[in-house]
Design brief:
It comes from Cellulosimicrobium protaetiae. The protein is of the alpha+beta class. It has helices spanning 3-23, 36-40, 68-81, 175-178, 346-353, and strands at residues 46-51, 57-64, 85-90, 93-95, 139-142, 148-149, 152-156, 170-173, 189-191, 205-212, 226-230, 238-239, 242-243, 246-247, 255-260, 264-276, 278-281, 288-291, 294-299, 314-317, 321-330, 340-345, 355-357. The chain folds into two domains: 3-94 and 242-353, Beta Barrel (Thrombin, subunit H), CATH 2.40.10.10; 124-240, no CATH class.
Length: 359
C-alpha cells in the first residue's frame, strides 16, 4: 500500500490497540507508574510503517517479548491489518547510556532501573580514548554521566548561552549523554572521553552544556537531544563516508551506518519509520517515556547495530546523508537476534535545537 493509505490504517489500528488494552485493564500511562520497569511491562504496542517488498508499506507492530497480554493484543491488531503487517518482538527498550551514581536516585555504582549502562572500556571497539581534535563517534558525556557518543558538529542560529556567537561550534548528542538529569544546567562541564572511559574535569573538559530538549515524565516525546558549546572550534568533522552536511527523512529500507563509542562503525537497515508509542525506560526520576515518530534499525552484520554507550551516534545513509540520532535500543529482536535500535528523526532534532549540521 502507499504511504498515505498506510498512515490512515496505522491510525485506525492504534485506536483499536488502545481499545483492546483498555478492555483488558492493561492500559497504563507513563505518568501513573514512576518505576520504569513496571511501565515497560505494560502490554503497550508501538505501531508505525515498515517497508514492504512491493515498494510500498506494511504496518509495523512491535511488542515486548515476555509480556503475554501484549502478544495477544498484537495478534488481534495484526489480524485486523491483514496481509500487510510486519510484527516483531523486542526486549526492553532503554537509553544506551546511564547516569552516573547519585544523578538518577540510585546507590553509588548503580545505574538505576531501566537504564542500559555503557559497555566497559576494555570491551568497547569504538573510540574510548582522548581524541583531539574532536571527531564524530568518540566517547563524550556530561561530567556526571558515564559515557555516550559525540554524534555530529552543529551550529546554532540563535546562540543559547553567553559567550557564543553565530560562528561557535557545538557537539550534538543525546539529552541523557550531555545532561543526564533534570537538574543539569547550561554551563555544566562536558568531558571527552566520558567519565566511564577515564575522562574528568578540568583536564578533559571540551565544552559546556548549552541547550537541550527537556524530557518530562508523562509527556510524549519526539527527541532525546542536547548540544554542548565547544571550547575549541577546530574539529575534524569526517565520518567513514566523508563529511555529512545533508539530512533527509527516512523512508524505510535504507542501508545505514553509524560510528559509535562502543561498537564503532556498524551497518544496518531501516526496518520501520513513524513508530509511535515506543516506550523507553529512563529509570528513577523520569520513569518510562513514550516516543512518537521514531525510526527503527536492525543490524545487517553478525553483531548488534548498537550497544550501551553508542547513544548520540549519527545514523546516516551510505551516500552520506543523515537520517537520525541514535538514542535507545532493545535487548533482543532483529534478524540476527542482537536487538533493535531506535533513532530520533534528525530533521526534528535539529529543528528543536535550532541547529544545522556543520558545513
Amino acid at each position: 500500500m502507499d504511504q498515505q493509505k498506510a498512515r490512515e490504517i496505522k491510525s485506525q489500528l492504534a485506536d483499536y490497540a488502545r481499545e483492546l488494552a483498555e478492555r483488558s485493564g492493561a492500559a497504563i500511562e507513563a505518568r501513573d507508574v514512576p518505576d520504569a520497569a513496571e511501565v515497560v511491562r505494560a502490554p503497550t504496542l508501538a505501531i508505525g510503517l515498515a517497508p514492504h517488498d512491493d515498494g510500498g508499506y506494511a504496518i509495523a507492530v512491535r511488542y515486548r517479548l515476555g509480556v503475554p497480554t501484549a502478544r495477544s493484543i498484537a495478534r488481534k491488531v495484526a489480524s485486523e491489518a491483514g496481509d500487510t503487517v510486519d510484527v516483531r518482538r523486542t526486549g526492553r527498550i532503554r537509553p544506551l547510556v546511564a547516569a552516573a551514581a547519585g544523578r538518577s536516585g540510585g546507590s553509588p555504582g548503580e545505574s538505576g532501573p531501566g537504564l542500559r549502562p555503557p559497555v566497559v572500556t576494555a570491551y568497547a571497539t569504538g573510540e574510548t580514548g582522548r581524541v583531539r581534535p574532536l571527531r564524530p563517534g568518540v566517547s563524550i558525556a556530561h561530567v556526571d554521566v558515564t559515557a555516550g557518543t559525540l554524534g555530529a558538529f552543529v551550529r546554532v542560529a540563535e546562540p543559547p548561552v553567553a559567550g557564543a556567537d553565530a560562528a561557535s561550534v557545538y557537539a550534538l548528542s543525546n539529552w541523557h549523554v550531555l545532561a543526564g538529569s533534570p537538574s543539569a544546567r547550561a554551563g555544566d562541564v562536558v568531558v571527552q572521553p566520558g567519565p566511564a572511559d577515564g575522562g574528568s574535569a578540568p583536564d578533559d573538559r571540551v565544552g559546556t552544556l548549552a541547550a537541550l530538549v527537556p524530557l518530562e515524565a508523562g509527556v510524549t516525546q519526539t527527541v532525546d537531544a542536547a548540544v554542548a558549546l565547544l571550547d575549541e572550534p577546530a574539529v575534524d568533522p569526517e565520518y567513514p563516508v566523508g563529511r555529512i552536511t545533508e539530512t533527509a527523512v527516512a523512508l524505510g529500507g535504507e542501508a545505514v551506518g553509524k560510528s559509535g563509542r562502543t561498537t564503532g562503525v556498524t551497518g544496518g537497515r531501516v526496518t520501520a519509520i513513524e513508530l509511535d508509542d515506543v516506550v523507553v525506560g529512563y529509570g528513577d526520576g523520569l520513569g518510562a517515556l513514550r516516543f512518537d515518530d521514531q525510526i527503527e534499525v536492525e543490524s545487517t552484520g553478525d553483531g548488534p547495530f548498537s550497544r550501551g554507550g553508542d547513544s548520540g551516534s549519527l545514523v546516516y545513509r551510505e551516500d552520506g546523508v543523515a537520517l537520525g540520532l541514535l538514542f535507545a535500543g532493545s535487548e533482543t529482536g532483529g534478524a540476527n537476534g542482537t536487538g533493535l535500535t531506535y533513532c530520533n528523526p534528525i530533521g526534528t532534532v535539529l529543528e528543536r535545537l535550532g541547529a544545522t549540521l556543520l558545513a
